[in-house]
Automatic annotation (TrEMBL):
InterPro entries from the UniProt entry: Cation/H_exchanger_TM
UniProt keyword annotations, A-Z: Antiport, Ion transport, Membrane, Transmembrane, Transmembrane helix, Transport
A GO CC term assigned to this protein in UniProt: plasma membrane
A Pfam entry, by short name: Na_H_Exchanger
BP-aspect Gene Ontology terms: proton transmembrane transport
Membrane topology: Multi-pass membrane protein
UniProt protein name: Sodium:proton antiporter
Record-annotated membrane-spanning stretches: 6-24, 31-48, 60-81, 101-121, 204-231, 243-259, 302-322, 328-347, 359-377, 389-412
GO molecular-function terms, A-Z: antiporter activity
Amino acid sequence: MTADLVYLVAGASLLLAVVLPDLLHRWAISAPMVLVAVGMLIGLTPLPDDLPLDPQHNRAAIEHVTELVVLVALMGVGLALDRPLSLRKRESWHRWTATWLLLGVAMPVSIAATALLGWWAGLAAPAALLLGAVLAPTDPVLASDVQVAGPQTGDDHEVDETDEVRFTLTSEAGLNDGLSFPFVYAAILLATEGAVSHWGLEWIAWYAVGKVVVGVAVGIVVGRVLSYVAFRSRSDALRVAERGESLLALAALVASYGAGEVVGGYGFLSVFACAMTFRSAERSHDYHAAMHDVAERLERMLTLFVLLVLGIAVTRGLLSALDWRGVVITLAVLLVVRPLTGWLALLPCRHVMTAGDRGAIAFFGVRGIGSLYYLAYASKEDSVLAQDWLWSTVSFTIVASVLLHGVLATPVMQRLDVSRRAASRGG
């Protein structure tokens, strides 16, 4: 019976993934909102008691499913970005300034602020730090309504440099999933190794720097190899770009993630770096759009499946440990911590970005499926990191983010688009 229900849920998710985008695009209702709501309604029906919804007993399944969703999303995000990033050109780095400010200032400050909230709520230091690390990164999976639509290709290829909001939110979501991992490891080490003096230097040298560098380097190498094969190989059989074999997107995802993890780097960063590197080759080629389309469709199906299950779990006991402290932290993270840290981090960009753009970037820090992955990953290491309260609070934050950001994304982005077009005509 349980297996049959899994097939039913998966089939319903696939059907909704096909029809919802066109049905909802005119309204301030996102597909994630609908799926969570439908899941909650299904959870209120008399379902079997043995459904695999308890995170304590199904941690491994949650970890691997959410890991796959994030990986597919990262590949899609990397392929969608048109603005190049050349490691050897200072001007190229400068055009990503807003992204670096969010990653280097807003994210660590958000982690610290959320960890302090967790400590205030009575959590032990490792659990408080994990809460901060889990809720700090924005989500590449659920933020599609405020991200770039996809790669611009073709003979008339021209990169749109005016939409700084969508570019910044997209690039941030692609990078901060991997860059939050050092703080997850810090929480694990604090729980398992004790005082910071026992592991602090190792954490800085390897977890905060070494694994980041290795992950990015592996992704660049894999991306260059695959782009050479796809576009410039001497063998007709290997030049898959010419015949539009877009499943290479999945091969690139698996190869870059596996290689990054095998050599000890952060696989999430490897996937994003691989996608960005591949995108830098033959930028106007339509093959990039085809690969992005495959990643986007798979991501949509997986995302809606996970959200439907999350909705079912919410009304089947997932929030049983939630209390007023968890609600306060959720509201603080979504309405105070992220908007305030994002706004302050972007102050150096006030001369090149409007106040509205900076406010939108600061506000739309969508929390999502990546948070579930990090919590599942860390919870297996120590019981203090596997508390029911953490699962309830993080899940409630995701649902609240889906609702809050889902309702506001369409009207806010439309308003910004109108203002941008008006400013362009006036200029």
